[in-house]
Give the backbone structure.
Amino acid sequence: MSEIRYEDIPALLLRIVPESCDSIEAKYGVPAQQAVLGQEMALDAYEVLTECLMEPVLLPQLHGDSPDAELLERCWAFVETARTCSSDLVRGAAHFQVLEALLDEDGLVERAWPAMKEGAREEMRRILAFYGVRLPGITG
């Protein structure tokens, strides 16, 4: 596990994926740099990953005709950091709000797969196996 604490995750999100800035500011009503230092944002890990990463940044890229490979790379780097955080809260949020959320719509796992880090891929394979979902080229 990483030595990153759950309190560090909001600032890491803003640093690694600055495209989350507008959604952070809208959610908390203060400048993003101020919001990421507050305890409230750290405790909202599940909402933050949905409302500040998935919905405004990651999903539009996965739905787009020409996704930004560099932005996807950074999003998955952040997810990998959250997924390996020492906090159960943050790991759970990454699992449920990002990885499992990809199962909500056909084709999202396949579109996300090329940019995912190996750890996220392994976890996604476990999720797919748990739900009995077979995807060619992913689950074998």
About this structure: The longest helix spans residues 45-63. The mean pLDDT is 92. The chain has nine helices and no strands.
